[in-house]
Design a protein that fits this description.
4-stranded mixed beta sheet, 5 helices
Length: 119
């Protein structure tokens, strides 16, 4: 997968709200994650990619800074997304430490998130 197709993204506020309200929260140094698994996955969910949404509050900085934070998270997540399997919806709220962190550390935190979600 070269990028995130629209079918793999959470874009609407009602979908974000569903994950926030029903999901399990995991906190790390670079992001807070909310993971929600479809309680009754059907065949379409098994083969569909997980859906992911990224948020950064305006208090984190200007649009350039916020977009950089989302790009770093997105790229750390993208090659590992297939490991999670279908039926998942994840929202990642970036924290300011993500800007200065080495990329390898961000990747490790994403892997920890996947283990927590599946475990």
């Amino acid at each position: 997968m070269a990028g995130f197709p629209k079918s793999a993204r959470i874009l609407q506020s009602k979908d974000f709200r569903k994950v926030y309200d029903g999901g399990v929260r995991f906190s790390g140094p670079f992001f807070a994650a909310f993971c929600l698994r479809d309680p009754a996955p059907n065949l379409a969910h098994v083969f569909a990619p997980p859906r992911v949404g990224f948020t950064v509050t305006k208090t984190m900085g200007c649009a350039v800074v916020r977009n950089r934070m989302k790009r770093r998270l997105r790229e750390a997540l993208r090659p590992r997304l297939a490991l999670l399997g279908g039926g998942w919806e994840i929202v990642l709220n970036a924290r300011s430490r993500i800007l200065l962190a080495p990329f390898a550390e961000i990747e490790r935190e994403v892997e920890k998130l996947f283990f927590k979600c599946n475990g």
